[in-house]
Amino acid sequence: MKPLLNKVTDKLNRPLRDLRISIIDRCNFRCVYCMPKDVFGRGHPFLPREKILRFEEIARLARIFASLGVEKVRVTGGEPLLRKEVEKLIAMLTQIPNLDITLTTNGSRLAEKAQALKEAGLNRITVSLDSLDDTVFRAMNDVDFPVAQVLAGIDMAARVGLSPIKINAVIKRGLNDHSILPLARAFRGTGHILRFIEYMDVGQTNGWRMNDVISAAEIIETIDSEMPLAPVDANYKGEVAHRFRYRDGSGEIGIIASVTQPFCADCNRARLSADGHLFTCLFATKGYDLLGLLRSGVSDEQIVDFIVGVWQNRNDRYSEIRGTETVILPKIEMSYLGG
Ligand code: SAM
Ligand code: SF4
Ligand code: SF4
Hints:
339 residues, alpha/beta, TIM Barrel, 12 strands, binds S-adenosylmethionine, binds iron/sulfur cluster
């Protein structure tokens, strides 16, 4: 495909650089802040197989997005490692020139998948891990999954060279705020980059309240009081995590302060749901059906035109305008949309 001379920008002059692709809406965890069990129970209507993007369709769309200026693709879900032969998809994506591919996982299947992912060309990975305390971890994933298995996955990922490994921890008040220091102590000096995420009001099911958010400032203060920190410049414009280094040189951490320090002004991310809908914001209330378009037999150029039209109309800045009116909007669940 011909590269476009003028990369697309939205109404707030933000380019399209980053694409998150949810490859599955199912998950083997029921994290209380993401897929609460009472909503995502036995009878929950997950997507039927024929409505989910096939690997060839994902790769085709990734190429098209790359031609529009996307530099990074994050494969996510749901739990992406539950998708059968996910390594085949990774191998297809890592062949696309000038595209950096990464994947976010809950780590439950990582020990068995790490080697195949590495061989498929994956270089980096992000593992979600909210606590090292087994009781807290089991309560947060709500399926009694042991933390030791995720730690074994992280070790295996490091052993096969999927590094640096990023470790994502969502902190919810009263649930795992006591896990902040143990997590920092455990990963300091390992080369893995621990990133704390403020608990967000994604979807409509997690019962989010501002009082449950532990702010980035509180997290930094907690760690700094024991392990002094200094801020570090962003690696690139639009980086979501604020970076801090340990003053003694033993590594760095990141904080994703989507609630208390929104970063919409530089947001260059698009999201593709498991059923091929394009979303221009994590908090969007509607998506655009790329799968329908793709399966109607249109050309790549027609798909490009469609995406350009959507992006040029984009003016999302949800986190900057978050308030009592926005919190009750009919937002889409993160497990479907892709975190
Ligand atoms: N299942 C994979 C995992 O957990 O890593 C990938 C999908 S998950 C939706 C992606 C990321 O979103 C995870 O790091 C998770 O912790 C984060 N997440 C989910 N719900 C969240 C919420 N309410 N607030 C902040 N982060 C959330
Ligand atoms: Fe599953 Fe990830 Fe959501 Fe937890 S955060 S329920 S692991 S999709
Ligand atoms: Fe981007 Fe929407 Fe998040 Fe703002 S709220 S940073 S526009 S995804």
